[in-house]
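Running this now, will post back.
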Amino acid sequence: MRRPSSLVVRTTALCLAVAGVMALVAGAISVRLVTTSSREITQQTLADQADVIAAQLAQTRLLAGRLNEILEGQDVAVVRRGAAGGLAGTDEAAVVAARRAGLSRVTAERPLHGSARVDGEMLLVEGRAVEGRIAIALVGKVAFAEGTGRRLIRNVVFALGVGLLAAAAAGWLLAGRLSGPLRRTAAVASAMSHGRRDLRVPPEGPRELVEVGESINALANALAYSEARQREFLLSVSHELRTPLTAVTGFAESLADGVVTGDEVPEVGQVIGQEAGRLNRLVSDLLDLARLGSDDYRLDIVDVDLTDLLAESVQVWHARCAAAGVVFSVEAADHPVPVRTDPRRLRQVVDGLAENALRVTPAGAPIVLALRYAPGAAVLEVRDGGPGLSEEDYRRAFERGVLHARYEGVRPVGTGIGLALVHGLVTRMGGMIDAGRAPEGGARFTVSLPLTPHGHDATQPLATP
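Update: finished.
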């Protein structure tokens, strides 16, 4: 694969091309201007000479030979029109030019100012009437012909060479000014790709390059922050995995070594099963969270009645809350609430939010599952009477590991992935979720899902059992 040329080469080549085109255009315009000016001057000179000679011929009747002798040194030919209308002259090309320019039509009232091309050469013609049918024409070449043209071409070529040299120098300097900061930016980006996060691009060069450097620095800061968050998250997950693994390993060794025997065996087996289930749930949550961002993550979207789904959840969480001494209540509609969603994933969302609420709610405090309408949407709420969160924590509640890191050792906390998983699931199902303060004093998590077409009117009242 051909390696692309550098910025220095491209900028220099572009400056050379621009300078060359400008010099050629200027040269062409100069040649045109000089040619036009030279022709006008020559024509005017011939016209003045023709006026003078015609006047002298009319007064003194100079002989044609004497007239030719006078003008010969000026490279001007004389053509005479006789009384019979014929044209005569010593220069055949001049006679042809006079005829083509219209000497035969010259009168005292209509002099001739013209030109004609003969054998590829442009000749200027000035004709004047002398007496009766007699007339003369002076025929000359454009004074630009040789020396002036060569000098002009030499000057254009010289200007072109000087312009190209100046353009090359300017392009080289400009490219160096641009490529230096770009190389340093590329070096920082390359170091970042190899894991360095402590390098930053110095703000230098034109404004656009400074903006590129600032963007690279912002990316480096974001990567450093993200990686620090990932390390904290992995540490917390590792801790959560180690706890049940330690219990499973310890009890398994006790069984293998015969330390646990008799009536203790069923109890130890139950503990091992519980810890294994805890491990399984944690690993499943991690896998779901990892797969959420992929295109092949499967959702089985069907028509779902949220009233039925909530009733199934109530049976489970009523019993679990009763076992923990927590007051459980439901606020639900007494009619179908139709949405299109994945019922298994939505049940996973409800269970995740309820488990999070039960973890922090003390005995005697309430947990509420609620179903209500908003304009065009069905709303599921999980509210608790626990300690709640700060306003900042509500805004960051769905970021992985944030609440775990904030409250570990202060209150019961989970693995740090449950709320992040819930947020991802709701988003993939086309809904929205937010967190805020509940009227019961703790936290409120609200899931909004769009109603199916022709769904329930949002103004219809809900029944609260």
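The domain at 302-450 is CATH 3.30.565.10 (Heat Shock Protein 90). More later if anyone needs it.
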